Amino acid sequence: MQSERQPTDATAPNETRARVKYVRRLDQVTQLAPEQRDRLGPVEARYVFRANDYYLGLIDWDDPEDPIRQLIIPREEELSEWGTLDASNEESVTVARGVQHKYTDTVLLLCNEVCGAYCRYCFRKRLFMDDNDEVTNDVTEGLRYIADHPEVTNVLLTGGDPLLMSTRRLVEIFDALRAIPHVRIIRLGSKMPAFDPYRVLNNPDLQAAFRTYSTPQQRLYLMAHFDHPRELTDVAIRGVDACIRNGVICVNQCPLIKGINDDPAVLAEMYATLSYIGCTPYYLFQGRPTAGNEPYEIPIVEGWQIFQQALRHGSGLARRARYCMSHETGKVEIMSIDNEHMYLRYHQAKCDNDVGRFFICRRDDNAYWLDQLEVVDSAPLHA
């Protein structure tokens, strides 16, 4: 099991501090030697870097393989040719700027183009590039679209990270969505509980907004993003608790990442801790074949084996996660694998008729994504 590393006094703020200090250039990371920063310059030029003193304080700088370091510090291997910037073809379901409507009952509002830090394996890293205009801070058109589509009951605020927006702006969006009768669930996709727990802990206005807009009839959901048990510091746990105490339902979803959480013991420890603190595991995602992500990817078969081994060590609540691919055609759950075949099911689908559809693929230990698999049999949900 991995021991917890708390932020050091030299690099992390205390709990009374209102804001962490953000770092936007590798030359500001003094723990890296000058020659290391020089080697990583071309990577930083292509894929932007961002972190903060709290999160950098979790790194054991004496360990070059430290998982938090792997998550946040660029690697030269990111420049290898691999994948595409829009691996799930989100462009095809973009109905307006900053608005995605892939599944019938769910709309995504990409309402912020910045995160508390940038995960090196991010599947939306294109959003942080200079020439990208997919995100808009003005969600008026998105709100109008949602109001005009009564089938939409579920809205996910994402980006970027919505919790990096001002509380005032969040309240405006919450208020507008609560005024649309058919919107029953508002979700916040956020890694701020890991990157900067003080965003919640030191912000009574945000906590008040949670209390106001997360009601017994219509809850706010926090789709938290913890990747490794070392992120679950005492401060982070208190941040999650502050969300829960103010009415927010918390669950966790994250990808399986090579060098970070691809050890069954690490994954099991994280799932156990998450279940203890009331932030139950929800999805474990197969990494998308996104440009720059080759050093972080794991073949599907190996990933499923890691996932299954991790689940054996947990209680029922720690076993609630589903191992899925967010493919262009839908959310594909990897249900089982034997010596010859892989058994998959559409947990959610772009085409309503595919929801629940079960299909069988030939086992391929070298496949990273659905497009690389050969389908040998399939059946609809209702025979």
Write up what this structure looks like:
The chain is 26% helix and 22% strand. By secondary structure, it is an alpha/beta fold. The chain has two domains: 22-79, no CATH class; 90-379, TIM Barrel. Helix 5 runs parallel beside helix 8 (204-213) and helix 10 (264-277) packs across helix 11 (300-311).
Notable traits:
383 residues, alpha/beta, TIM Barrel, 2 domains, 13-stranded mixed sheet, two-stranded antiparallel sheet, 15 strands, 22% strand
SSE arrangement:
Layout: E1 22-23, H1 34-46, E2 51-52, H2 53-56, H3 67-72, E3 94-96, E4 99-103, E5 106-112, H4 140-147, E6 154-159, H5 167-178, E7 185-190, H6 192-195, H7 198-201, H8 204-213, E8 220-224, H9 234-245, E9 249-255, H10 264-277, E10 279-285, H11 300-311, E11 322-327, E12 330-337, E13 341-349, E14 358-362, E15 375-379
Parallel strand pairs: 5-6, 6-7, 7-8, 8-9, 9-10, 10-11
Antiparallel strand pairs: 1-2, 3-4, 4-5, 11-12, 12-13, 13-14, 14-15
Structural class by SSE content: alpha/beta
Q: SSE string, helix = H, strand = E?
A: EHEHHEEEHEHEHHHEHEHEHEEEEE
- What name does CATH use for the topology of the largest domain? TIM Barrel
Write the CATH homologous superfamily of the largest domain. Aldolase class I
* Integer-rounded radius of gyration: 20 Å
Question: Domains counted in the coordinates: how many?
Answer: 2
Residues in β-strands, percent: 15-25%
Gross morphology is globular
Give the strand order of the largest sheet, numbering strands 1, 2, ... along the chain: 3-4-5-6-7-8-9-10-11-12-13-14-15
CATH class annotation of the largest domain: Alpha Beta
Sheet having the most strands: 13 strands, mixed
CATH architecture of the largest domain: Alpha-Beta Barrel
Number of strands: 15
Helix content, binned percent: 25-40%
- Helix tally equals 11
On the 0 to 100 scale, the average pLDDT is 94
